[in-house]
Write a structure and sequence with these properties.
heterodimer; A: 116 residues; mainly beta; 4-stranded antiparallel beta sheet; 11 strands; globular; B: 112 residues
Chain lengths: 116, 112
Amino acid sequence: QVTLKESGPGILQPSQTLSLTCTFSGFSLSTYGMGVGWIRQPSGKGLEWLANIWWDDDKYYNPSLKNRLTISKDTSNNQAFLKITNVDTADTATYYCARFGPFDYWGQGVMVTVSS
Amino acid sequence: DVVLTQTPSTLSATIGQSVSISCRSSQSLLDSAGNTYLYWYLQRPGQSPQLLIYLVSNLGSGVPNRFSGSGSGTDFTLKISGVEAEDLGVYYCMQATHAPLTFGSGTKLEIK
């Protein structure tokens, strides 16, 4: 059974760095072809893809967020991570991680609010 | 970036009615190897999105066969043959042929 669960700080202030963790089970990021992605959704709005990481540590980012994103993984602990630097109110959203199948399994999402 | 235009933005249907959602891409989603990476997701109220259709026309695991996908190139359609109450929510198409991955703006299905 594949499950994913996101965790994060809940609330942070503008200019801080957002650190998100995706803890998953039922698959391994050391398995050929496996990947995990991050997607976000502002309240009442649509979905925006942010980044993917693959079993071979290949990484892809949405260029719209320029150089603010860093995705990484800890294969031994079945976790993937996303950092977003220099956040502002536009980064307020629910953040999802999903297995890249693509995105055949999703976590429940974690709400992040950026507010001063 | 590839723009996916979904129509209609809102759809109202009665139980048992068949409906279709269109997803048009700003460029062809057929890659040089002959693959078309077009997907459909449903996000029910208060829930995470779930995969319905992958690679244009393949049914996701556990997805009822009243859902079907079709299309090629730049034009794609999701059809629900006999809407049920549990089908309400927002439907999104997504393309993974061209970087960055992009989603359509969504189609909200309401049940009359």
